[in-house]
Amino acid sequence: MFGSCADTRRPQGFWQVLLDAKPSAVVLLGDNVYADTFDPAELRSAYAKLGAIDGFQRLRASAPLLATWDDHDFGQNDTGVEHPRQADAQKVFLDFFDVSEDSPRRRQKGVYSARVFGEAGRRVQVILLDTRSFRSGLEGGPKSYVPRSDADATLLGNDQWRWLAEQLRLPAELRLIGSSIQFAADEHGFEKWANFPRERERLLALLGETKASGVVILSGDRHKAEISRMDGAPYPLYDVTSSALNRPLAVQAGDEPNRRRKGPLVWEANFGVVEVDWSAPDPRVSLEIRRSDDGMPVVMEAFPLSRLKAAP
């Protein structure tokens, strides 16, 4: 189960809805709080409000909780490498999510991480990227960002790229790559991988180089939800965007264009679900967007796991 954009100033009933769905793991994709600050004390206070919520506490106790950050729980809106107190923000994040003092995440720049669940033949690898700590400045104005073509513009930074290549070479049947921003959609003017086209092409190339099968992208940020399918990779690459858990846009802006969208655009508060039926000879993967208020599915895409494998 995964989601993004949870505002502690708004009703918190969705935690119980997530809990009722009995997830085997929970992934938070950023904007886990809305602090919008470079002051670590203010950020710590925002996390304290989240930690005091009963539903969040019970969900956290019921299943493994994995998290990365986005702009509003990293610094300020659309912030990247220019964050003046990034190390302090990282410490607050790692402290809240109970990352052990001997974890590599305490020594690296950035909060990227990975974990494998399940036994051989049923392994699910969760790779959480950090799209904030290394991200070069954006080009264009807010809501009208344009692609950067210069060779030194980066989204992940060299250290994280090296780490990602290592992770993609590890054995796993299904790989869920968590990115706080959308990977596939590229027709809107907000933050997205397409603002750094060389970085997006680098990830597609890396999937081919590492022969990593089973990749699905999980993303957030947009305060709307959709399932996108991007062809041109070694196999069809799905990007499932779930946003927001309780902060949907107050004004719906119509049917935002996205030529890769599969199914409808969802404006209601929502969360995402990935389910795998391992009992089938060719395990079946189900990607869903569900409403946060009642847990009912509103978008679903299902397919055999073998679809996420490059042709020999």
Can you walk through the features of this model?
By secondary structure, this protein is an alpha/beta fold. The chain is built from six helices and 15 strands. The strands form four sheets. It has a seven-stranded mixed β-sheet with strand order 4-5-8-9-11-10-12, with helices on one face. A three-stranded parallel β-sheet has the order 1-2-3, with no helix packed on it. The protein has a three-stranded antiparallel β-sheet with strand order 13-14-15, with no helix packed on it. Strand 10 and strand 11 form a beta hairpin. Helix 1 packs parallel to helix 3 and helix 2 runs parallel beside helix 4. The longest helix has 14 residues. The model has no long low-confidence stretch (mean pLDDT 96).
How are the SSEs placed, and which strands pair?
Blueprint: E1 2-3, H1 14-20, E2 26-28, H2 40-51, H3 54-62, E3 65-67, H4 86-96, E4 113-117, E5 124-128, E6 139-141, E7 144-146, H5 157-168, E8 174-179, H6 197-210, E9 215-219, E10 225-230, E11 237-241, E12 261-266, E13 270-277, E14 284-291, E15 297-304
Parallel strand pairs: 1-2, 2-3, 5-8, 8-9, 9-11
Antiparallel strand pairs: 4-5, 6-7, 10-11, 10-12, 13-14, 14-15
Helix pairs in contact: 1-3, 2-4
